[in-house]
Amino acid sequence: MKRLITLMLSVTGLVIPVLAGAHEYPAGQLHIDHPWTRPTPPGAMMGAGYMTIRNDGDDPVTLVAAQSPRAGHVSIHHSRMQDGVMRMDALPEGLTIPAGEQVELKPHSYHLMLEQLQGQLVEGERVPLTLTFEGAPEVEVELAVDPLDASSPAMGKGNMGQAMDHGGMDHGQMNHDH
Questions:
Q1: Burial of 159 from C-beta contacts in 10 A (0-12 / 13-18 / 19+)
Q2: pTM for the whole thing?
Q3: Domain limits at 90?
Q4: How many separate domains does the chain show?
Q5: Amino acid 46: pLDDT
Q6: pLDDT per residue over 86-111, tens digit each?
Q7: Are 116 and 71 contacting, i.e. CB atoms less than 8 angstroms apart?
Q8: Average pLDDT estimate for 141-159
Q9: In this structure, is residue 172 part of a structural domain?
Q10: What CA–CA distance (Å, rounded) separates 51 from 34?
Q11: How many angstroms separate the CA atoms of 156 and 167, rounded?
């Protein structure tokens, strides 16, 4: 009996930290899973937000805007490789989540750009973010500021530390008309 109790406490001790790190936001037909970002260095003016958005409804919805009190502006972007160069394009029409599907915002793909940051994003904090949809109500979430060396669900083990290396990107095609 004593061993069973010890085993149960051990397993519980392993599960609780995993559950504490995960955070989900069910909102009607939408389900937002693990919104996250990375810490930024002092003085950085930009960060990136990631998450998975699942649409369990019968109609498509479009993420058309986002805002945060921690950023002067939040825009929706898509990064892609083209001719050996990583390119990043703003999506002024938004990002559509088809009915019955999910879209993953992750490094080197769809993401939110947190521009004109109001201070450094610090590991362990939560950054409030409002997501505005066409075809669904607004959703309030918090971006967890995950450690740089963590393997986020969206990152995968092979991509650690690559969350926001936009230094080699061609920003020439990016439209920042807000």
A1: middle
A2: 0.74
A3: 25-159
A4: 1
A5: 97
A6: 999 999 999 999 999 999 999 999 99
A7: yes
A8: 67
A9: no
A10: 5
A11: 21
Kindly calculate the radius of gyration of the chain based on its CA atoms and give it in whole angstroms: 18
Assess if residue 79 is contained within a domain. Answer: yes
45/1: higher pLDDT? 45
Retrieve residue 161's tokens.
């530390």
CATH number of residue 45's parent domain: 2.60.40.1890
Residue 9 lies in a domain: no
Q: For residue 23, what are its two tokens?
A: 């955070």
More confident residue, 43 or 152: 43
For β-strands 126-134 and 110-117, DSSP reports them as: unpaired
| Residue 154 φ/ψ, nearest 5 degrees | -80, -20
> What distance separates the 2 farthest-apart alpha carbons in the chain?
66
Sign of CA dihedral 103, 107, 111, 114: positive
Amino acid at 11: V
Whose structure tokens read 């058309």? 64
Residue 151 belongs to a domain: yes
Count of beta carbons in the 10 Å neighbourhood of residue 73 = 14
